[in-house]
Amino acid sequence: MDTQQVSAPSRAPSPVRGGATPTSGVMHINSRHTSRFTVIGNHLAQHRELSLLAIGLSTYIQSLPAGARIDIKTLADRLPESEARIAAALRELEAHGYLSRTRERLSNGRVVTRTCSYNQPTGAAQRHPAPSPASRTRRRPSRPAPTPMAAPAPTPAPAPAPTSAPAPAPTPVPRAATAEPPPLPQPRNPLPQYLRAATALLTDLHRHSAAITLTEKDVVLLAPAAATWFERGATPAALRHALTHDLPQPLKRPAKLLRYRLTALLPPPPAPDHPTVLFQNCDRCERAFRSPTPGNCRDCREEAADDPHAPFPILSG
Fold it and tell me: Can you give the residue range of the structural domain that contains 222?
């Protein structure tokens, strides 16, 4: 008579620690990390108001060593995301206290950006943390027991004290959850040269990207924001590239996309000692060009120099 094999397991071992295999949902297969890992809190990994791109970008930034460059262009070169999406994710992290960017002027006059990444959100949530379960259990025994009274006395006044305590600390509504878009940037000094150049650039965008079709109302609304770019030293080529590069396909609302890019990608203001060169309209072809004095653009000056019978004078500009 054969003997029973008692050494063989009755069933396959459970891959879940503790032997409790779930009947549905996710099943975690975890291995212990001993090197090259980053600790991320569930307050970030399971944040209900941050986008998945913002959560992933914060995780990537926290994994970088101190001193690493995390400007928009550097992140766009390393990650498969556009500069516009990365800029929006950084604004989300700033709004929820996971990132701060401040501009400082060095002793040599150079302006630099100081960036700080937080593994715990800053703001009201950090100043007023929620009490832990252990602290609540420690306070319960110290609560005095009610003293029995012979006759019912009117004692409703002390009762509302515990319930009214948390009322002065309402949960702030995050800026990202509001439905209203941020206001468009406006120039500090709305010069007519900037407004004319901005209007011409917006009107001509469909020649560079057929997907961008703007109405007259859209151009009038977006022209001051585009003029703000010129006021801060941006060239027409740089602004046109920011508005037409890496467009989503299909583009359903071009005016809304341009409004977002004009606001999110706005360059910083120039240094106080930086000279401002105004836009001028060419006296010959009406094209906008940068010059401290009015006159002709470079192409018209060269053309007029070759033609001695040119009807327009050659002006420096």
Answer: 192-264
Task: Write down which residue in 264, 284, 310 finishes a domain.
Answer: 264
> Which own/partner contact pairs does 69-75 have at CB distance under 8 Å and 24+ positions apart?
70/115, 70/117, 71/113
Residue 238 lies in a domain: yes
Burial (CB < 10 A; 0-12, 13-18, 19+), residue 181, is exposed
117, 149, 174 — which closes off a domain? 117
What are the angstrom distances between the C-alpha of 124 and each of 89, 95, 129, 171?
21, 12, 8, 9
Residue 190 has a pLDDT of 79
Residue 95 lies in a domain: yes
- pLDDT for position 129: 43
pLDDT category at 109 given cuts 50, 70, 90 is: confident
pLDDT at 243: 93
Q: Calculate mean pLDDT across residues 302-311.
A: 65
